[in-house]
Amino acid sequence: MEMLYEDMPDKVRGASFILQLARNPDYLEELCQNETVLGALARVLREDWKKSLDLSYNIVYIFFCFSVFSNFHSVISHFKIGSLCMDIIDGELQRTDQYREQLTKRKKGGELGADPAKLQQDYERNLKKYQAVIEKQDQVLRVCTYLLLNIAEDVRVEEKMRRKNIVGLLVRMQERESPDLLLLVVSFLKKLSCYMENKDDMADLNIVEKVSRLVSTDNSDLLNVTIRLLLNLSFDAGLRAKMIKVGLLPKLVSLMSEERHQQAVLAVLYHLSVDDKCKSMFTYTDCIPTVMKLVLNSPEPMVPLELMALAVNLAANKRNAQLICEGAGLKLLMKRALKYRDPLLTKMIRNIAQHEGPTRALFTEFVGDLCEVVSGGESDEFVLECVGVLGNLSLPDLDYCQLLTKHNLIDWIKDSLQPDAVEDDLALEVVVLLGTVAGDQAAAQLIVNTGILHSLVNLLNAKQEDDEMVLQIVYVFYQLTRHEATRPQVISTTEVPAYLIDLMHDKNTEIRRVCDTTLDIISENDNEWAVRIQCHKFRWYNSQWLDMVEEAENIDTMGGEEMAGGEGLGHSFLHHSDVLDHQGLYSDGLSSPESEEYPGINGHSESSRPSSNYTNRYRQHVLMLGESTIAPWVRQTRWKPS
């Protein structure tokens, strides 16, 4: 301790002696109790760290030995060694920038007229000094970073570090070349990246561009922790886009076959494959063949989760699906899925089946096997995915009617459509399957004749809050109304058109679109429903105006009752008959022209109308309710009685 008060060489030597003691864990307890020694070490470090890298290294190493054990973290916080280490890191990085700048100037040339040979010798001499300094700095930076990493196990300490810009210091240290230092720096960044605030700071400092060079390193430990840092960062969509931009995709794909890094690499690639724009970029790498090889050669019955997650996402791209099916790819996948009843592998196959074109036609030979699985009576996830595959197979040459009867699927479908009979996910897939099957006229006739239509109506009534379920059921109704053979039975089932009218103004855009299309088909083929649908549309578009007229009528009715001594002279024209057939719609004022005839909503001609105190132009718009373009106009114009 007395040597710490001498000249610099003695200080370095004295600190090295104490370090030899501190490296033995048995002496840490005794050193911890000697506050005089620790105080002297902290004071010397604070005052002289700029003067000697060796002194800084020895003293910080002493406190690092304490940081290895959580019980001694109070010693480090008491002497504020963590804050001092961050100051040392910042100062050494600034010193490096200055050395590099001076070296660059010497390389470009010194004084004009100087001997080039002497300039080269001077540059080489300074370069050796610079490299020696960098080597010592790396040791100091490494022990400082390690100490900070150890004490950062306390979240409150980590938050203090963040406020002092620990992320910025670590990102700057990524430019160093020492593998040992980089391993600590990237490990620390990985730990910090678990918090969104730190991740955002890293993004602002272009962390992806600076980390990308480490993916090509030969150091296996450094590569592994770098990939795991990228995994944490890949939860951010913006950082995923940067990973693609800097060319990390082919580098990561090349690491898929290395067992040590495989799980982390697959997880990063899975995150990258979430974005639709990135899915197509996998086509230009060796990812698809590698994934197929890993899936088909997996020794376990269930393929690893990360691998299957990536495969499922890749299969959602049409070009990727074509590459997967090349050769006997689809056949091998189906064989493995059916053998092990693997739901995730079947989900991958289901994504392949959703693409139109030659890949879908390849499924024809497997339809029978899938139907046998579905009709087996089980209702697990594997069966759900098999139903999903069948629901995607809209093949013109497939005899759906024969499939339904041969594999006895009708009874299974009816049982599955009963409310709460199966899980909602399976019920939804069954409805999707019906929508696909109903595209065939013979199968549609079979569906209607076996009473499945009523089961669909009951399911719609039970699941009316589930938008996806409602949409798929309405689509089945649409498919059934497209065929002339089944259309009358759908229309005669009054619940179907009534439900469609109610859903015509649903908040879901897709539901409204399918309802409108289906109701248009019904209107073209049934006059009675055409009038009801047209009247409903009119009431909806002009609800404000009708409410106003009804309110005015009520006032007139109350006045008439008073004049008649209580006898009701008024009547409601909004609920008991057609809205255009009532004189209460108009008041006395202007006479209507006798020479013109106006088409009524029921199709008959109306040559005379009661006079109106509205303008003639407004009256004509009201009378021409048969025009679909009039309703929005009436809704937008606020009519006020004179």
Overview of the structural elements:
The protein is 68% helix and 1% strand. The chain has 642 residues and is an all-alpha fold. The termini are far apart. Helix 6 (81-108) packs antiparallel against helix 7 (116-151). Strands 1-2 form a two-stranded antiparallel ribbon. Mean pLDDT is 84; it is low at 563-577 and 579-642. The chain has helices at 8-22, 28-33, 35-48, 53-67, 73-78, 81-108, 116-151, 155-163, 166-173, 179-192, 196-204, 207-211, 220-233, 237-245, 248-253, 259-273, 276-279, 287-296, 305-315, 318-325, 329-340, 343-353, 358-361, 367-374, 381-392, 400-406, 409-416, 424-437, 441-449, 452-462, 467-482, 487-492, 495-503, 509-525, 527-541, 543-563, 616-623, 630-636, and strands at 598-599, 605-606. The protein is built from 38 helices and two strands.
Features:
mainly alpha, 38 helices, membrane
Task: Write a short abstract of this structure.
The protein has 642 residues and is mostly helical.
Strand content: under 5%
Shape: elongated
The total strand number stands at: 2
Multimeric organization: single chain
Radius of gyration: 40 Å
Calculate the mean pLDDT score and round it. Answer: 84
Strand order of the largest sheet: 1-2
Count of DSSP-assigned helices:
38
Low-confidence stretches: 563-577, 579-642
Estimated structural class: mainly alpha
Report the helical percentage. 55-70%
Main beta-sheet strand count, sense and barrel state: 2 strands, antiparallel
End-to-end C-alpha gap: 104 Å
